[in-house]
Amino acid sequence: MTITRGNFRLKVVEGEFTDSQIIVMLRENGTGKTTFLHMLAGLLKPDSVEGSDMEIPKFNFSYKQERIGIKLEFECIVEMLLCEKIPDAIRNPHFLSNVFEPLLIRKLMDKELGDLSAGELQKVALTLCLGKPADIYPINEPSTYLDSEQCIVASTNTSRPRIK
Ligand SMILES: Nc1ncnc2c1ncn2[C@@H]1O[C@H](COP(=O)(O)OP(=O)(O)OP(=O)(O)O)[C@@H](O)[C@H]1O
């Protein structure tokens, strides 16, 4: 199938993945990584082709957008946001030890979203994404704005099995 955005056309061929598999997409800027993730997550529709029976399988996605902060309510305390959006996850010991604590979210809990640094906001966005039960977690730009230590934490701890 293909998907067209202005002058850009991405051709997607059928592939496979298994449970608990981590797939990393690394390509130059503007080669269609975000377009592909948006298509997978159902945010963009592929071009329709007459007679084609190829469909994107239906999965539950928890997607972390490339541009963080756009959909977050800025006059909100981090703790309130997490309690509202991922109430089960933040009481789950597995999530706390694999995501919440390694990303050092506890020390951000009483801060307003609007006061967070870009890296802190990125970590809250990752926590929100990973705290939602889903089949697939497309994470766009997981390490942007993170310091080197937190880049390693984000790539190791956030890829461990999570709550279902
Ligand atoms: N709404 C749009 N209208 C026209 N062209 C678009 C639109 N959105 C994206 N594109 C183009 O599609 C191409 C792929 O963009 P995409 O965001 O998928 O790339 P990417 O691989 O995620 O890039 P990056 O690594 O820079 O984040 C780019 O050339 C971009 O300019």
From TrEMBL:
Residues 11-143 form the ABC transporter domain. Signal peptide: none annotated. Pfam families: ABC_tran. Gene3D superfamilies: P-loop containing nucleotide triphosphate hydrolases. It comes from the Eukaryota. PANTHER family: ATP-BINDING TRANSPORT PROTEIN-RELATED. This is ABC transporter E member 2. It comes from Salvia divinorum (Maria pastora).
